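Dock S-adenosylmethionine; give full complex structure.
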Amino acid sequence: MDDIVVARLGRPPGRRHRIANELLARLGTRMRVSDPPYRWGYGNVESHMNVFHLASQTCAYGVPGDLVELGCATGESSVVIQSVLSAGGARDKRFHVYDSFSGLPEPADADASDGIYHKGDMVAPLERFEETFVRAGLAARPTIHVGWFDETVPAQLPDRISFAMIDCDLYSSTKLVLPHIYARMSPGAIAMFGVYYDPEVYAREGIRSTYASPGVKRATDEFFADKPEQVSVLYANEYSNGYFRKQ
Ligand SMILES: C[S@@+](CC[C@H](N)C(=O)[O-])C[C@H]1O[C@@H](n2cnc3c(N)ncnc32)[C@H](O)[C@@H]1O
């Protein structure tokens, strides 16, 4: 059977796939429509490799603490992090995810003057997060913290963190969560930024994406101005991730 992979039907496989496939069958063709199992939200193969390797390292070296993701949206990177935990058998660790599940808050001040994002951008309802786990065939689930970060952070953060995925796009959100994450990171813990775009390190030539999230780098660089650690850029095409390891 030959499959036509449709890049973005915008919804999980369901009625639309079935109707299209019934039509294709009636036409006598052997081709069928399917969504790629690896792509219906955010991130790409390279950014998921970064998530996998960094989260795995902290588990392999036994860095104390739990794993957290701030801005989990449809759960694409959450599935990778949960898989690392489940495969590694780190039974003493939990994974916590945080999101409004209503998309971004109203951009104010620096975010408003960047003019890139709007309230509700990237809205991903909780059901879609669940569907991503079902599609991945994962039985384990993280602890889900629904709400705006200023309601859930720091009250609902674990006391100690070994790996953090910080992926919230706005200056205000990054500025809000970073000090609380940093304060809870064990020595050797790693935090990864979903978008940390530094054109001087990685020009991303030929990439037409406007997915730059300049507020993330601004908030992060301000925070690290008086810290011993430095953020490094990780190549991941349009996502241009960053990371640091806590001393
Ligand atoms: C790029 S998406 C996360 C993508 C996800 N990490 C992945 O790789 O699949 C950014 C998410 O951050 C969330 N977010 C940003 N600022 C927030 C805030 N202040 N409170 C709650 N959620 C926020 C948005 O709702 C959105 O789902």
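Observed: DSSP finds eight helices and nine strands in the chain.
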